[in-house]
Amino acid sequence: MANNDVMIETRELTKIYGAQRAVDRISFEIRRGEVVGFLGPNGAGKSTTMKILTCFISPTEGTAKVGGWDVFDDPLAVRSLIGYLPQRASLYPEMGVVEYLEFAAELRAIASDKRRAKIKEVVEICGLKDVLAKTINELSYGYRQRVGLAQALIHDPPILILDEPTADLDPNESAEVISYIKEIGRTRTIMLSTHDLAEVKEACQRVLIVNRGKIVADGAPDELATKSGSVRYVVALDASESEAGAAKRNAATSQEVIDAVKGVVSGSSVKVLPNDDRATVLEVVAKGSNDHRREFFRLAVEKKWDLVELRRETVQLEEVFRQLTVGDGAPRRNAAKKTEGDVKEQASDV
Ligand code: ADP
Fold first, then answer.
1. Closest ligand 1 atom, CA of 164?
2. Which protein residue has the closest C-alpha to ligand 1 atom 21?
3. pTM, whole model, 2 decimals?
4. Does residue 45 line the site of ligand 1, with CB under 6 A?
5. How many angstroms separate the alpha carbon of residue 217 from the centre of ligand 1?
6. pLDDT in tens, 261-279
7. What would the CATH number be for the domain defined by 6-226+321-349?
């Protein structure tokens, strides 16, 4: 296979549960050597897509191929090319680390005379030397995931599918696991699902953002931020000292501020941010790279409002993620889990 071979390919991939389209006509390609972040809020369809790719469930419609093999027609060929690690590796707590890896090697039908060498290799790759004498229940969650990673690599697969492998880890453990994944990604194709944008920026050259079963963005993390071409302003205005403010009640002046700010940049989206009693604090996201600060300043002068704060920031990946995935969420099965989206939803739409 050539260097830029397509390793994972989906075409109009769809999974329907009852009335819900968990995965909705997703099409993408991942080429050899790419480390791709599969990013989306809970319930977006990440796990479902990955379970189809790893032959745990079958699609309702569309196709998925791994290394050219169809997941439905050739599951054995697909499984031999893939190493899989879910959020919680299915480990046997009473087993010793080496015993477990031997078991994993046996499951992968690695010849008994080759197992020792294979185990040595994955122990090296996943930094497990110090815990070889331990049983799994003696390990921290970080080490457990590294044992899970070793299990996923035992048959030396060219492709790794990692489904939120750091979701249960503390920040230090996550950073460590990500650094191993990054290293492993030098010689393998990896699809890594996560909510963590910092992880994506750290480990992935490319990101696929999914929302409500659909791909809503695809590109290099920096590229997506630049392409989105948006600028974010935080504008805080205090209208209470103005003539209008003195005459009216606070809520009314606040609405007047919102309406006026909305009129400054056509086509911008405006949200109310948490504010103190006096100032109305607004977030304005405007398309294009023009600088509109003077216009906000002029508005304040014209209305005789105090401009308490005016900030301009180029949009980051976090913002792109938020713009693409927040605000249209119907209740989802996993809604209790905390997501990037949940945190951001504190801001209310105007
Ligand atoms: P993610 O991994 O992005 O959090 P999932 O792929 O787990 O999302 O789920 C996508 C949606 O599909 C869920 O919100 C849920 O409503 C639905 N879903 C997933 N698995 C099942 C299932 N086994 N039965 C019914 N609905 C499911």
1. 2
2. 17
3. 0.74
4. yes
5. 20
6. 999 998 888 999 887 667 8
7. 3.40.50.300
